[in-house]
Amino acid sequence: MLNKEPKDILVSINSGTIIRTLLFIMLFIMLYLFRDLALIILTAVVLASSIEPITKWLMKFKIPRVLAVIIIYLAAFSCLAGIFIAFVPLVLDEVFAFIVMLPDYIEKIELWNPLAQSGFLSPTTIEGLSSGFSVADVVVGIRNTIASTFSSFWQTINNIFGGLFSFVLILVFSFYFAVQEYGIVNFLKIITPLKQESYVIDLWRRSQLKIGLWMQGQLLLALLIGVFVYLGLMILGIRYALLLALVSAFAELIPLFGPILAAIPAILIAFADGGTTMGLIVLGFFVIIQQFENHLIYPLVVKKVVGVPPLMVIIALMVGAKLAGFLGILIAVPIAAVMMEFFNDVEKGKKRLSEESK
Q1: What are the pLDDT digits (tens) for 22-42?
Q2: How far is the CA of 64 from the CAs of 21, 45, 183, in angstroms?
Q3: Structural domain tally of the chain?
Q4: Residue 309 falls inside a structural domain
Q5: End-to-end CA distance of the chain, in Å?
Q6: Comparing C-alpha atoms, which of 264, 213, 271, 247 is closest to residue 57?
Q7: Apex 231 CA angle, 227 and 232, nearest 5
Q8: Residue 17 resides in a domain
Q9: Alpha-carbon Rg of the chain, whole angstroms?
Q10: 310 found inside a domain
Q11: Range of 132's domain?
């Protein structure tokens, strides 16, 4: 057999390739050095994109873009102020009442009684569970945690938004991005090579629409679930209905597991107050809410609009929380939506190439 000589592989590196590589490295270094500012800008972009559909809707009534954005911001701040004034005192009353009643709710004999009555656990097991830990220590620990949280309320807000100054910057940048209709597009034109410019801008416009619809969908989903839970618990006579409804609304940020975690306190309170029957009724109520959400609200409001699988949403939220805390959670799903758009384009390109090669 004749030995074939290996072919030489020539790699051509021109000055343009070197310059682009250096620029990419410099951009990566700049993003790392100014990652806090980059995070603020990303959050502002997400907020600006979230109000874009409403802005365009208002502009249909011949309202100038600047005035439309101002109306949206004033309406948002008015709603937040109204909610704060109307509901925060009630929620605080329920929180402190819940703290006072906490020892009764976590007494093991009381909590495990429904299981004993149903025959699921034997009396010996109940006794072992009751003596397994100190209820007093748990009560003291929870009370101290809640008390320290409310005593440092502004510090908590400070930690969530990375400082009051950062929060103000987010509002200012988001307002600027919302007012400047083509501000982000012009920025993308500056940093994108001419060859990929049209695709990058098209990708951004599609992603911007999805981000806006996703934010509206999440708010609508949280509102619907919160209202349904509040009305249901009020009808059933469960205490702390408003507090539990707010917990359920905020838990909608976490797909799949959030609603389950939010249902646990309500079910335990129902078992403690009304015994096995009421506990099972509340459990059934949350199962109905969960089925209603999974098969009707979520597919119509969120999944159909964004097109991001629930598993990817969970991974994105975990990564965002790990890297950037609360702001990371806020921008995790929008970034995942952009990535899904890009991956879908890559998949379409592969299919098109395979069809052309046939």
Answers
A1: 777 887 777 667 777 878 888
A2: 42, 21, 16
A3: 1
A4: yes
A5: 35
A6: 213
A7: 115
A8: no
A9: 27
A10: yes
A11: 37-348
